[in-house]
Amino acid sequence: MNRAELLKHCLAKPGAWEDQPWEGDVVAKVGPKIFAFIGTDTVGVKCAPTREAADEWLHRYPGDAAAMAYIGRSGWNSLSTGGAIPDEELLEAIEESYRWVVSKLPKRDRPAGQTS
User: Fold this and answer.
1) Average pLDDT over residues 44-60
2) DSSP of 33-97, one letter per residue?
3) DSSP readout, 3-27?
4) Rounded to whole angstroms, how far apart are CA atoms 35 and 99?
5) Is the pLDDT of residue 115 over 60?
6) How large is the average pLDDT for residues 25-44?
7) How far apart are CA 110 and CA 50, in angstroms?
8) Could you tell me if 111 and 27 are in contact, meaning their C-beta atoms sit under 8 angstroms apart?
9) Mean pLDDT of the chain
10) CA torsion sign, 102 to 104 to 108 to 109?
11) CB neighbour list of residue 50: distance below 8 Å, 6 or more residues apart
């Protein structure tokens, strides 16, 4: 998957929108919260609610998954595209990240029809 395909997938989620909060950095948000960091050859996503649970990705894909700087302790990983991680798993990781982020949004900020 390339950057454009990942971003298109992210923006197809209910309530998703593109932002560039830092010069040159593209993120996908739902409400006011980021659910994916779209890099040139990586995607940063919330893989689990805890670092310990998110470490499963690091064990399964050493070299293609890493804890994200600054927010990794909260379960965020950077996943390489075009490497050992199948595209289907990258897309599922984006889905999971979206679900985790939406579940923590106040009800007023959730997209229509998103209750959990």
Assistant:
1) 96
2) EEEEEE-SSEEEEE--SSHHHHHHHHHHSBTTEEEPTTTGGGTEEEEESSSSS-HHHHHHHHHHH
3) HHHHHHHHHTSTTEEEEEEETTEEE
4) 9
5) no
6) 96
7) 22
8) no
9) 94
10) negative
11) 75
Average pLDDT on 37-66 reads: 96
Closest CA to 67 of 50, 83, 81: 50
In the DSSP assignment, the letter for residue 105 is S
**Residue 116 banded pLDDT, cuts 50, 70, 90:** low
**What is the rounded distance in angstroms from the CA atom of residue 54 to the CA atom of residue 112?**
28
Q: How far apart are CA 35 and CA 57, in angstroms?
A: 17
Q: What is the pTM of this model?
A: 0.92
> Of the candidates 4, 2, 82, 76, which has an alpha carbon nearest to the alpha carbon of residue 34?
76
d(CA 70, CA 32) in angstroms, rounded, equals: 19
